[in-house]
Each structure stands twice: as C-alpha cells, then as structure tokens.
TrEMBL record:
InterPro entries: DUF3830. It holds the Pfam family DUF3830. It comes from Microvirga thermotolerans. This is DUF3830 family protein. It comes from the Bacteria.
Length: 158
C-alpha cells in the first residue's frame, strides 16, 4: 500500500514539505484529518504566541466535515519536537472572553516548543511529522514573525 502522507506548502514562497502521518500512534486523528483533506485547503497561517517555534492555521469550514469531539486523546504531548504536527479543537466559550470555536492544525518547526496557552499547559494530539523539506519550511515559518500572516496549503501527497 502506498503511504498516505500530507504536504504543507507556503503558497507565495513556493516552499513545501512532506508530513508523514503517525498512523500507529494516532489512528483516529490521522484518519479524520486525512478524510477532511480530500481536497487541499488554503488558509492563513500565523505564528504561535506562547508555544515557541510553531505556526498555526485554522481548518476552514469546507474541511470541517467531522464532529471534532469524536477525536479521542491520542499520542498527546505538551513538548513536540521539530516537524511535529498537532490537532487542536476548542469549543465556543471554553475560555472566558473567547466566543470563537477553533479547529487548528499546528506545526512545530523547531525544537524547544511547548503547547502552552492562555489556559496553561494544553496536551494536543500529535498526528504526524514533517520528514522532507523541514529546513526550507522552517525558514518560511520564521519569516511569519517579520512578514506577518502567510497563506499555507495542506493536502494529500499524490
């Protein structure tokens, strides 16, 4: 069987990396995200505020094809390594003053990151790791801090 991997691409910079999914350790998360990305999606990516070397992007409505509460806690950590990709969901009104719902995919482009936010430590499902193209993607990720939000595309590797 051909490996089912994803890619993450910085659209304007034409920089791309391949994400190997952690099918054995996060099977439900992998299958759910895989199915949601039947068509590639593009969305703005921002740099994390609290987590260190991480970019985050929302999963757009057209890819919100599942019940986010159906994804169990699996392969969770607060200390991902460079290249690891996480799934995070926050329901509306979970945090005081935050009425929005968050469907997020995050990627740590360097070591030393931590999943820590306004509510404190937040273990998240780690469902893959960028195994090809990380150096170039990491440079693009760092540029968000200076240049601001950038468009990323995430989809299935053909």
């Amino acid at each position: 069987m051909t490996a089912r991997n994803l890619y993450l691409k910085f659209v304007e910079k034409n920089v791309q990396g391949t994400i190997e999914l952690y099918w054995e350790n996060a099977p439900v998360t992998c299958e759910t995200i895989w199915n949601a990305l039947a068509k590639p999606v593009r969305m703005p990516a921002i740099h994390a505020m609290f987590a260190g070397p991480e970019i985050m992007t929302g999963l757009p409505p057209e890819a919100q094809t599942f019940d986010p509460l159906s994804i169990p806690a699996e392969n969770q950590t607060c200390f991902p390594v460079a290249g690891e990709v996480l799934w995070f969901y926050q329901a509306k009104n979970l945090m005081k003053g935050m009425t929005d719902e968050f469907w997020e995919i995050g990627m740590f482009y360097g070591n030393g990151g931590r999943i820590f936010g306004p509510l404190g430590w937040t273990p998240c499902n780690i469902f893959g790791r960028m195994t090809e193209g990380l150096d170039a993607v990491a440079e693009a990720c760092r540029s968000i801090r200076i240049e601001g939000m950038q468009t990323v595309e995430i989809g299935r590797v053909a």
